[in-house]
Every structure is written in C-alpha cells, then in structure tokens.
Amino acid sequence: MFVELVEFNGAHIPQLYERIAPELPELTAVLRDKAGSLRTIPLPLLARSFLGYFFSFYITEALMPPAVRSLMGDDSFDDFVDIYLHGILAAPGAGSDG
C-alpha cells in the first residue's frame, strides 16, 4: 500500500474498491443483524480495520508464490471475508468447517 500511495499516487485504489465494494452489503447485513451485541467501536476505526484487512489480502496475494496461493482454493477471497465477519472459531456444536 505504501508503494501504491507514494509511487502511484493511489491510482489503483479504485480497482481495489471495485473488488471490495460487492462485499459491503454482506458486511452491512451482518452488522445490522448483530446491532444489539456489537462492541462499541468508533465507526472510523471499524472502517480502518476493514480497509486494512482487505488491503492486506491484496498485498499478500501479490507477494505470495503461486504454488502457495493455489493451496488456498478458488474462494480464498470469500473465505477471507468470512474470517473478518465471523472470526476463526466454529460456533458451539458446529463441525470443523464452521
């Protein structure tokens, strides 16, 4: 991200947004469903964590060898979103795949 901002003046950020934007309704739905049980987190901080999390996906995607990326499957972005929204722990009584 640092190189993107410094060297390219953020020219590729709209492309990242286009990839991330379709996931925003799911995030909004989860937040709405959990409204009574969410911790009090300032909205700008939540947005920062959300953006940082997804920028890290693209940075690690670019740095990772193709052989390692292939081990993550075709739905790795969807799984990444799922981890952000639901964490890594299975619900009580659920199997190992959630």
Arithmetic mean pLDDT? 80
Overall strand count: 0
**Fraction of residues in β-strands:** under 5%
The major sheet is characterized as: none
Number of domains: 1
Helix and strand content put the structural class at mainly alpha
Structure characterization notes:
The protein has 98 residues and is mostly helical. Helix content is 62%, strand content 0%. It has six helices and no strands. The protein has helices at residues 2-7, 13-20, 24-33, 43-63, 66-70, 76-86. Helix 4 packs antiparallel against helix 6. The mean pLDDT is 80.
List keywords for this structure.
98 residues; mainly alpha; 0% strand
In short:
62% of the residues lie in helices and 0% in strands. The protein has helices at residues 2-7, 13-20, 24-33, 43-63, 66-70, 76-86.
What secondary-structure arrangement, pairings included, does this model have?
Blueprint: H1 2-7, H2 13-20, H3 24-33, H4 43-63, H5 66-70, H6 76-86
